[in-house]
Amino acid sequence: MPASTESDILDRPVRFLKGVGEKRASVWAEAHQVRTVRDLLHFYPRRYLDRSTVASIRQLTEGPDPVTVVGTVQYARVVDGRSTKRLELVVEGADGGRMKAVWFRGFRWVQRAFEAGDRVAFHGKVQRFGRWFSMTHPDYDRLDAAEARLDTGRIVALYPGGEAMDNVGLTSRRVRRIVYTFFKEHGLELRDPFPETLRSTFDLMDGRVARRAIHFPKTQAELARATVRLKFEELFYIQLLLATLRAQRSAVPGAVFGAPQPLLTRFVNEVLPFELTSAQREALKDVIADTQSGHQMNRLVQGDVGSGKTVVAVAAMLHAWSHGYQSAFMAPTEILAEQHHHSLKQYLAPLDLAPALLTGSQGAAERREAQAALAEGTVPVGVGTHALIQDDVAFDRLGLAIVDEQHRFGVEQRATMFEKGERPHMLLMTATPIPRSLAMTLYGDLDVSIMDEMPAGRKPVETRLRTEKRRGEVYAFLRDQLAQGRQAYVVYPLVEESEKVDLKDAVSGYEALQAQFPEATVGLVHGQLPTDEKDDVMRRFKAGAIDLLVSTTVIEVGVDVANATVMIIEHAERFGLSQLHQLRGRVGRSDQQSYCILMAGYKQSAEAKQRLQAMARTNDGFEISEVDLKIRGAGDFFGTRQSGLPDLKIADITQDQDILEEARAAAQQIVAQDPQLRDPAHADIRTHFERYYVRRDLDFARVG
Ligand code: ADP
Ligand code: MG
Question: Is the torsion defined by CA of 427, 432, 436, 440 positive or negative?
Fold first, then answer.
């Protein structure tokens, strides 16, 4: 290792740099988390201005893609329109063309921000109203005279800003000057953390050149190379973490189950009343191979609702039992645990086996009996909720832990499961399909089996979009289905902030439906009911004692009521896409034709329209998840924190798929050759990795 490392300069607080100082440093930290030189180098421009990318105002045309223009503010005025007020800013380009920038909100701030004569770059979609071209709520940057002329031949970087940044003079121009001075004085202290071999294998720009060029590109080509290099680097460390975790996991010895035994074959060939789908067969093969490898299995089965994951889990469990191991089957709620217990009982009875059930609400005697059976090893499987991982539950010989709806469990709960017995193989199941690009990052440390096939004979759910004026028709249809003995769900949205208002919606909907359908038994379930009452309503619905179930979105993922064939979703425009798809998955669980009716208001945002159309177009959860990801962007897809998705500064997992795959290959290569990063050529990578990834994710590293 060299005497001084690159970290010395990178970790220096920005307040010591020329042009920063205390006040600016604190605003910068507050507004954009820029504290150290490293953060400064990662404070990437939001946009670039140069002659080749700025449009002429005189030659504007309407279009869906945003454009950038540069002009001088002429005057601002507030216009009192028919229904709303708006603020219009008239802007003139160097070519004499004029356009308007329009705001419907935040007049005061906009009025304060601009004065006649200001030179400004605007960025937005162009629309035409009469003879005027205009941009509504455009993104903008104030420019100085030199910047506005666009005649420097340079590509000018524009940075994230805001009111607080403006108030302390941290304009784009100032930021550029600070970064420029930094490079002049300290540029030589930077090093490229990547060794030459890595750069040449993946045709990457030198890291020092890229760090500078992203702020001061000489050409568009140089900017493009620098962008790729920095995206690659960002994604590389995440993939390095995942590759390292995988390597550590596969070093953990696992119980060896061996070849399939007659018990498994009998289950598949004689007990099941249907043929396995080929996706189910593949997933089962994966499990058999994993549990034969001598390493601990960490497999995620990803399959849409109704794709038949439970059957795969039961087969895996029987496979374990035939080799002398018990399984734990963990579900997130009591209802789901009971449901699994019920179907397991039926699957296992012909094989003269029975599952044990453990839940929080069962009686003491029942619980003691289940505990004894598990501890003595007389039952092959314990099914239950969190109750399964309590200290007083011991297995005789636990070899496999199955976690249903795994995203509902925290890392610690999975870790506790893993610590039980002799580190069981882990089989995780999720009904939330995830686009491949995200799966590579989110689940990059797991092996994944994808079940992208529905059992034969299943009729796809028919989805219809309806507005209020056709409610009569919808109710007539519902009445007809109920008359045929079917059951239905009517779901109302639940937005946390206004739980009371939403509840009122559901309650008045419930009352209206009772009046409309006197011949039916109508039930109501919502989040404010105590758990046992909620469970009671759900049980009655399952038993067929309730025909029409009105609910807020508390209907459990995975609840299986085959006789329910209609799902009506009220205010469908307010639901997220994956939520809509999950709800639709509650019906279509038998050979009966099922229907999903999306009741939507007339006023829909463009995004809401896209969501509803996607629902009407396809039943495929993977396709839905791709659309969802496109609409929302990766960061928002699950909510960054919850999902464990890293906070990316420059790369975009949805857009940068190719770079992601290369970064993954690079990370895997390095871990294969030098798992501990001991090679001096990897010293800088190791420093950064240990500091920013390993420690923070230690927890994550314990179990998958
Ligand atoms: P998931 O948990 O993936 O939502 P389940 O395992 O609950 O799905 O299966 C849904 C329904 O489909 C169950 O009633 C199950 O018996 C049935 N099923 C599973 N596999 C098949 C298959 N290969 N052919 C026909 N029906 C199947
Ligand atoms: Mg299931």
Answer: negative
